[in-house]
Design goal:
Elements: E1 6-12, E2 18-20, E3 35-41, H1 45-53, H2 59-66, E4 73-77, E5 80-87, E6 100-107, E7 110-115, H3 120-130, H4 138-151, H5 153-173, H6 179-207, H7 217-283, H8 298-319
Parallel strand pairs: 3-7
Antiparallel strand pairs: 1-2, 1-3, 4-5, 5-6, 6-7
Helix pairs in contact: 3-4, 4-7, 5-6, 5-7, 6-7, 7-8
């Protein structure tokens, strides 16, 4: 069904169940006690055409549902509400921090949601409806979808926190240069997740204060719990970000210390051999008058003198506390 833009459509019976619909059924009147949920793939032309020509939505709502990019937000209208949310991308081979957008319009007895990439939370909601355990109202549908999106973030944030802790232990015990690349990945993921979770937290908190016909008190309470969960996730991301900054400083400090030790050793070696090189260079010039040219013991005497001079320099540097 998703090949033509209609991912799923259900006529909810208000008791947790629902009847699956096709394109042809969407033009029928909605029964008094039923709720229509239409979920579309916004990248399909037929879905775009239905939104513009047959959905009956205001142009401003149509534009918001069809926009290419959007941050999480909620906007209250006289006849309903517009909600944009994001969920982690758990598709095989995808990066979880590449969060997937879902936008929905909710009114008295109808919900229209659109997405471009799949979301596991929507699949969970479809399964609940087919098993008779789905939402019984528009407010519950919104709350169930928001809960599903937030619930799947927990494992991603837990893995990210565990990765930061493991990296901290490795930085303390090893000097592997690959740690810099891993640290960069963790910080990049943290920044990407934080970019959307903060506005989504604000949107959920704002949504829970709406006083309209779409949301009831119980659903507003669930949305407040969702906002609290997002607040904890944002705090976890802040902690991971701060830990990443500390680890980056520690790693840079260790690499700097390692480089300074290498430079120090090279400087000591150069300081010891500089006078020796001057002496051997002076004795190696190709001019007349060099002493010992006729003495067969000259080389041994000069070599012994160089060794003695090198030992003397070493102890002199030790006494000066240069080494």
């Amino acid at each position: 069904m998703s090949a033509d833009g209609l991912i799923c459509a259900y006529l909810l019976d208000g008791q947790g169940g629902g009847t699956s619909l096709d394109w042809q059924d969407l033009g029928n009147p909605i029964p008094r006690d039923a709720i229509l949920w239409v979920h579309l793939n916004r990248s399909c032309p037929k879905a775009q055409s239905w939104l513009l020509e047959e959905s009956g939505l205001e142009p401003l709502v149509q534009e918001a549902l069809s926009a290419n990019e959007s941050r999480p937000r909620c906007v209250e209208f006289p006849g309903g509400l517009l909600l944009n949310m994001r969920g982690v991308n758990l598709s095989p081979g995808a990066n979880p921090e590449d969060m997937v957008s879902i936008r929905l319009w909710a009114e008295g007895n109808r919900v229209i949601s659109v997405r471009r990439r799949p979301l596991m939370a929507v699949n969970d909601l479809k399964e609940k409806i087919e098993n008779g355990r789905g939402p019984s109202s528009v407010a519950e549908l919104i709350a169930d979808l928001a809960d599903g999106l937030v619930e799947r973030m927990a494992s991603v944030l837990s893995d990210l926190s565990d990765g930061a802790d493991e990296l901290e232990d490795q930085i303390v015990t090893t000097q592997n240069r690959e740690l810099r690349s891993r640290l960069m990945d963790i910080r990049r993921q943290t920044i990407a997740l934080r970019r959307y979770l903060i506005p989504q937290r604000d949107a959920m908190a704002h949504l829970s204060t709406f006083q309209n016909a779409v949301l009831d008190e119980r659903s507003r309470g669930r949305l407040r719990e969702t906002a609290d969960s997002l607040t904890r996730y944002v705090e976890d991301l802040e902690s991971i970000r701060e830990k990443g900054a500390v680890l980056a400083d520690e790693l840079a400090s260790r690499l700097t210390d390692q480089m300074n030790r290498v430079i120090y050793v090279l400087s000591v070696v150069a300081g010891i051999f500089l006078p020796l090189s001057l002496l051997t260079g002076l004795l190696g010039i190709n001019v007349g008058g060099i002493p010992g040219t006729e003495n067969p013991w000259s080389f041994a005497i000069v070599s012994a003198g160089v060794v003695v001079l090198g030992v003397f320099e070493f102890f002199l540097l030790r006494k000066l506390h240069w080494i």
